[in-house]
Amino acid sequence: MNDTVDKLVIFLAKRDGIDKLVKTFQYVSKLVHWHVEKTHPDAATRAKQWEVASGLSRKAFRSGRFLTGFNALRRNPGPTTKFRLLAVFSNAGEMVYFFFDHFLWLSRIGVLDAKLARRMSFISAFGESFGYIFFMVSDIILIQEGIKAERRIVKSGDESENAKEKIKNIRGDRVMRLMAVAANLADLIIALADIEPNPFCNHAVTLGISGLVSAWAGWYRNWPS
């Protein structure tokens, strides 16, 4: 019990940890609003207010986060030219997303002209989608390489502790990358709802489930080991 509490404290001390918690609030309240909108209008109104407040607070808390893309490219540009290009495209998309998200937030709270909100939302979502596609491509390639490496170790018949440790690390990395792909795919669906509104992506259930998949996959990845 104490170990779980300690991990929760560490998790919530991270910016990403707080973001995933508030994202959970945001999309749970969206699903609650959809579920009780016709039967309990008062509860639906409160759920909608919670959803909006959570969304705006996440945007405020992410202020300056577009700079993390520069830092990621500076610290780990990638082992090969292929991965360097993928890193540039994915982080560039994410930087556009977070940068224009500042203006979207300011327009929604009334600091900037409210008419800018739709345009800023489109640009931010477009950059977000662009980045997510390349993040997913990178993770899928690395998952495939990990599978090949694991098969080589198994076929070699090496049963040493070192080989077992390598396989354990490969499988652990695979799980984390699968969680990243799930989160990015879910967020891509949410972004597409802003770029090209359509009945599927914009449905409250689709957005709610996608938001929770993203939040909980991120929760898993950021939870202290």
UniProtKB/TrEMBL annotation:
It holds the Pfam family PEX11. It is a multi-pass membrane protein. One of its GO terms (biological process) is peroxisome fission. The keyword Transmembrane applies. The chain crosses the membrane at residues 83-100, 120-143. Its main location: membrane. InterPro entries: PEX11. It is found in: Peroxisome membrane. GO terms for cellular component: peroxisomal membrane. Keywords: Membrane, Peroxisome, Peroxisome biogenesis, Transmembrane, Transmembrane helix. One of its GO terms (molecular function) is identical protein binding. Involved in peroxisomal proliferation. Promotes peroxisomal duplication, aggregation or elongation without fission. Belongs to the peroxin-11 family. Homooligomer. Interacts with ARC5 and FIS1B on peroxisomes. This is Peroxisomal membrane protein 11B. It comes from Sesamum angolense. The lineage of its organism: Eukaryota, Viridiplantae, Streptophyta, Embryophyta, Tracheophyta.
